[in-house]
Amino acid sequence: MTFTVLVPARLQSTRLPRKPLADIAGLPMVVRVAQRAALSGASRVVVAADDAEIVAACQSHGIACVATRPDHATGSDRLAEACTLLGLDGTDVVVNVQGDEPLIDPALIDACAALLAQRPECVMGTAAHAIDAVDEFVNPNVVKVVLDGAGRALYFSRAPMPWWRDGNADGVTALPSPAPLRHIGLYAYQAGFLRRFPTLPACPLEAVESLEQLRVLWHGERIAVHVTPSRPGPGVDTPEDLARVRALFA
Asked: 54, 169, 170, 178 - which has most CB atoms within 10 Å?
């Protein structure tokens, strides 16, 4: 199937300023991400940047890039503008690879994109993997997802779910079976829906959980979920994360 990878890149980050340009073994992080994404089956990989420095860094390393407005509230807004700039619409498939995932698995990108061909009733696809540690299950920074019988998302939450009524009566000391699922922040979209998404009103659950994907479910749309047997490589949110990834490249 044919699909486009878009990599949103915002220069300023609260926890790691100038994150897209952070050096990883001699290359800016956003270039590392784009190079990994190019190993997938994507027909093209394009960075959607909010700053001329990112555009210049991409161009100097042969990475396609479009300049988007700097005032977008969310990454989805930036991607929607990129779709317009690139002429993507309707059932064109777009995969959003976050600009802080320099170790993203190209096969996972392909699997996420394939969901939309396999599940035409879904406007989005995403991924998850089994949680195997209690501390990860109770960590609010780890987003969990529960699925219906057809492999579509029922709900995303920062809370431990599903809640094991009998096993958690005295606190969370073990995991339920089957294993709970950790959401991986990789998304495939029908381009027409991605362009429409920023126009949908935000929902109360989205504000409470601070999870933008809940807006999709709130408005009655469906999200297909690929469950991968392997855990993705670490992303970069903090200086500590950056040091860990640099050590892996070294």
From this structure: 54
